[in-house]
Amino acid sequence: MEEVLTQTKFDILRTELRPTALKISDALRAKASEIVNSSDFPTRKNEAWKYTNVNGLNKLVFDGKNAPISEPLIISNRSRKLFVKNGQVSEGQSMLSGIKTSWDVLPEFYTDDAFDALNVLYCTAAIQLNFDNAENETIELVFENTTNSAIFPRLFIQCNKGAKGTVILNFQGAEKNASFINVSTYVNVGENANLSIHKIQKNGTETFDLQREYVDQAANSTFTMNTFPLSGKLTRNDLKINVNGNNCETFMNGAYTLKGKSHCDNHTTVDHKVAHCYSKELYKGVIDDRATNVFNGKVFVRKDAQKINAFQSNANILLSDTGTVNSKPELEIYADDVKCSHGSTTGQLDDEAIFYLRSRGLSEKAAKELLVKAFLGEVLEEVQNEEVRSYLEAQIEKHFSA
User: Fold this and answer.
1) Could you give the CA distance from residue 71 to residue 93 in angstroms, rounded to a whole number?
2) pTM for this structure?
């Protein structure tokens, strides 16, 4: 009988991708290829992907059709900036101080994630940010996406001992854009360092955006990750934090505004490996139309990690009868002297509050908008960068006035 040749779903997708032009070692290429070749797209049988279907990736056509972005791209006027247009670092920006964009060879990677391996093989830009000073410096990476294309940045963020830094990851896409954004970010927060990352994902309505952050924290460090998925067809964020040293503080915040048929999936993991650490996690979102939200947060407290304080909360508001929320906060604790809590709520706007505001002269729409802004405001208050917070407030205002 003639053998029937079949393709895995990754094989189908790879026919649309261009191999990276960056130099990678033979060992790295072999490792990444082995992972991708032996992997298939995750299915509902995989618990971590139970509510997120990525098969739509195979329908994308990277035809390079151009569509301009109508609004300003810049979030911060006080930051140093690096522009990455359609996956490529803009010309003349490869030698900025503290920012590395040219490589003799790409660094090794230590995950077995197939999308991370795919990022290695088809990397469009590799960028390293270094923070060495105690004065808080802000660097904004502006990812401008105006064509239907594959965007595979590989980011390395190093905040060295005693340093303080802020990173703004500003993803902007044309409204009708249909791209595949696949980002791997490796973060190292040194001893006594303080690093904040603000990630804003404002993508085209047909764009798939899959991102991963792998974070390592050393003793006495503080790390903050603020994530804001504002638009896109499918957005998936995987945040994995290893708290390796004592006396660390870790903050994770997220706010999302979903409508249409958009799908957003936030997965977070905090692994407390040693004692005397604190983590706080707050994700809140508003879901309208037929949009879907997934939240899965997990906190590990290892056997020797005593005196841990860990708090986790996910809250959602449904503005329609057809929206969907799947929320699963988790704690896995092996130590006995800890203070940990988690919670999840999903509901609708308070009718009595709406009635009260309408009795004070507001329209029904204005009353709902005011309540939504107050609901998301708890997350925005955690954003210490004023420019980022102002930008987000304006985007939320625009979202609900459209």
Assistant:
1) 22
2) 0.95
